[in-house]
Amino acid sequence: MTSRPPWLGRRRLAPGSDPAIEPGSIENPIPRRAARVLVIDDAGRVLMFRGFDPADPGRRYWFTAGGGLDPGESPAEGAVRELWEETGLRLTAAEIGPPVWQDVTDFPYDGRWYRQEQEFFAVRVGPEARVHTAGFDAEELRSIDGYRWWSVDELAAADEPIYPPDLPDLLRRVYAMAGSAAPDAAPRPGHGERGE
Fold this sequence. Notes:
By secondary structure, this protein is of the alpha/beta class. It has 5 helices and 8 strands, in the order ββββααββαβαβα. The chain has a single domain (30-128, 139-178), classed as Nucleoside Triphosphate Pyrophosphohydrolase. Helices cover 20% and strands 32% of the residues. A hairpin with a 2-residue loop joins β2 and β3.
C-alpha cells in the first residue's frame, strides 16, 4: 500500500483564528465551496479533465467537471453553471437532481492552500452528447489541457492522480443507487482538446 502524498485531500481540524497565521497557508487554508459533476456516458464512463497546478506544472492530475460556487449560488445552481461552462451541456437544477456525495478536501493551487467543501452530482448523457470547452474561463484555460472518458476499471488503474481518489468506489455506489451496471467499453478515440 502506498502512502498518501501530502497534497491528496488532507483533512485537518479547523485552523485557529490566530491573525498571525497567513490565510492560504497550509495551517490556514482559504475556505471554498464547490459543486462537482459526475458526467456519465451511455457506456458507464465518467468525464474527467486533465489539469495541473500552475505552481507545479509538471504534475498532471485528473478531476471531474465542476468548480467553485459564485456568491449566493446553491450547489445545484453551481453544478448547472459549471457543467455549461466546462462541457457545453445545458441542464436545469431539477435535471441535475440532489447531490450523491459530499466531501471536504484541502489542496494547494498556485501557491495557496484551500479547504474545499464540495457536493457531487451525477448526470447521465446519451451517445449524442459532445463536450465543448469553449466556455472555459481564464483560469481553466491556464490550468486544463485535455479531457477524456474513463471507465471505473481505468480509473482504478490510472498512473496519474485522480480526484477524488476514491472516485471508483463512488461511481460504483452511484451505479448501485441507479440500479445500473458500470459497463467497461473501449475508450473513445483520442483525447479532447480545448475548444471542441
